[in-house]
C-alpha cells in the first residue's frame, strides 16, 4: 500500500468533514513523562484525581489501543462571528462564559466526525483498528498535536498555530497503520509573556506550567467545592471558564472563524444577565443548557459560580434579594451566597459614603467656600 497517498487522502477527507487542519505523528511521548509526573507530584491537578489515577498512560497511546502506531491529530475552529468578548467581560452585570462553551458541546460532534474519518480509511484499507478521542481518555493531546504539526504549546500550555491562533478544539484518532509522520511545530512565542501576566489568579506559575488549583477554568468547571476567598474577587463575572490568556495572545489576531453553526452563541446566552441566570430553577437550567458542555457542572455549581459574580457586581437591592431567596439549598452554596451579600452590602456602604461626600462638596461649592472648609 502507498501510505503517503493514503495520508494525503486522509487530510482531504478530514477537511471535507469540517476539520481545518490534520497532522500525523508516532506515539512516542517518552520525553513528556518526567514532566507529567513532576506536575502530578506537585499537586497541580487539584481534585482531578483521574489524572493521577491513570498515571503514565496519558503519555502512552498504545496502552489505550494496543497495536497503535500512529495518531491522527485534528483541529476544528470554534470562534464565531459574534464572539462579543469585551461586551460581556467588561459588563459586571453580565455573565462571562468561556467562548468554547457558548454553543453546543463539541465532544460528540468532533467524535462523530472522527468516526466518519475512520470509516473512510477502513474502506480504503479493508481492515483497520482505530479509536477516536475527544477529551474522553487519558491522553496528552497537546504534545501529540505539536508533534503532528498542528501548532506549538504556548506559555499558557494551549496549542498555538501561527495561521489561526488558539481558538480551536482538538481530537485524536488512534490507528494501527504506519503512515508517514508530519514535521513537529516549533515554538514561536519568543519573549512574549502576555498570557502569564494577564492571568487574573496567577495560575501560570512557570512558562507552560499551570497550577489548576489557581485557574478560574478549573475552579468554575472541574472543582465542585468551596472556592477559596482569595480567588473570588479575581474571578470577576467569569462564571464558566476563563479566556484571558487567549484574549491577550498576539497570535490570536490571526484567528479563523468557525464554519460550524453549532459553535455559535446560543440565544439564551446573548447578553446573559447575572440575576436572570441566577433565577433559573433547575428544570430551566437543564432545558436551556441542553446540548451544552455547561450542563455537566449541574445547577448548584452554576448557582455557586453566579453568586460569586453577583458579589463582584455593582450594588443592587434586587441582586441581594435574589441571593437571599437561594439560601438553604446547601451549606457550601450558602457560604458563597453569604460572601456575595456581604460584598454587595460593602459596596452599598461605599456608595453611600461617596454620595454623602459628593453632596457635601456640592454644598461647599454652592456657598463659594474653599473645598477644604
TrEMBL record:
Its cofactor is [4Fe-4S] cluster; cob(II)alamin. [4Fe-4S] cluster 2 binds at residues 199, 215, 242, 245. InterPro entries: 4Fe4S_Fe-S-bd, 4Fe4S_Fe_S_CS, QueG, QueG_DUF1730. Its main location: cytoplasm. One of its GO terms (biological process) is tRNA queuosine(34) biosynthetic process. It is found in: Cytoplasm. Keywords: 4Fe-4S, Cobalamin, Cobalt, Cytoplasm, Iron, Iron-sulfur, Metal-binding, Oxidoreductase, Queuosine biosynthesis, tRNA processing. It holds the Pfam family Fer4_16. Binds 2 [4Fe-4S] clusters per monomer. It catalyses: epoxyqueuosine(34) in tRNA + AH2 = queuosine(34) in tRNA + A + H2O. GO terms for molecular function: 4 iron, 4 sulfur cluster binding; cobalamin binding; epoxyqueuosine reductase activity; metal ion binding. The active site is at residue 135. GO terms for cellular component: cytoplasm. Its EC number is 1.17.99.6. [4Fe-4S] cluster 1 binds at residues 189, 192, 195, 249. Cob(II)alamin binds at residues 58, 135, 153, 159, 170, 217, 242-243. Residues 177-209 form the 4Fe-4S ferredoxin-type domain. Catalyzes the conversion of epoxyqueuosine (oQ) to queuosine (Q), which is a hypermodified base found in the wobble positions of tRNA(Asp), tRNA(Asn), tRNA(His) and tRNA(Tyr). Belongs to the QueG family. Monomer. This is Epoxyqueuosine reductase. It comes from Vibrio marinisediminis. The gene is queG.
